[in-house]
Amino acid sequence: MGKVVAIDGPSGAGKSTVAKMLADILGFEYLDTGALYRAVALGLNELGIKTDDTDEAIEEALKKISVSFKNAKVFLNGRDVSVEIRTPEAGHYSSVFSARKPVRDILLPIQRDAAEGADLVAEGRDMTTVVFPDAWRKLYLDASVDARSKRRFDQLRLAGVRISTEEALKDVSERDKRDSSRDIAPLKVADDAEYIDTSDVSLEEVMQMVLEKVGEGKPSA
Fold it and tell me: Of the four listed, 25, 83, 153, 157, which is most buried by Cβ atoms within 10 Å?
């Protein structure tokens, strides 16, 4: 396994943006694990699987689903679903289905395989605690609920998704509750992870802190 920078944190903390920039700076590969979960959730939805279906039903449906992440694009059974998976609905189902054991079981080896023969920046909810517990560097990005819901609102509006500030806040709050209270691999700060609060700082300042934690100094001006 190559060097892995594992990044965890709640929705809207800036993980994806930071992970992409860090991977580019370090010359590492980038893995958006949240996109994989969203793609699986989309596939289950399209197969008619409900969130309260049994693990057996989900496991059977997963046999018909293939997901991959390549060149910052997500593919479901060979179809580019990079845009489809970014809706609030896709985020909801991703958060719900990600708590189910068959889904986590099928994606765990896919995520770990990404680090075979490559240096990797991987971001998600359990990168530091479950997927890469022996990662070279571990970071936990966090921010206040208000800051994260505003980012979520801006992100979706920029993507052309109609959403109110109240809906964005509800989406973030509900995902926080599901991610931190699930029985399997709940979102938490690993004991050996570096904690970074991104609430009231610029992206440049966040990257300075991240690079210092990783041990690569500060980005050039």
Answer: 153
Contact present, 8 and 139 (Cβ < 8 Å): yes
**Could you tell me the residue ranges of all domains in the chain?**
4-213
Strands 67-70 and 73-76: antiparallel
What's the predicted TM-score (pTM) here? Answer: 0.83
> Cα 19 vs. chain centroid, distance in angstroms?
10
Helix %, strand %, coil % of the chain (to 5): 50, 15, 35
**Range 4-213 classified under CATH 3.30.530.20:** no
Three-state DSSP at 153 gives helix
Edge-to-edge strand ranges of the sheet holding 79-80: 67-70, 73-76, 79-80
Which stretches within 54-196 are classed as H helix? Answer: 55-62, 88-97, 101-113, 145-158, 165-181
Cβ contact 142:198 at 8 Å: yes
Q: Please tell me the distance from the alpha carbon of residue 161 to that of residue 178, in angstroms, as a whole number.
A: 23
Residue 137 — pLDDT band, cuts 50, 70, 90? Answer: very high
169-213 pLDDT per residue, tens: 988 898 888 888 888 888 999 999 999 999 999 999 999 999 999
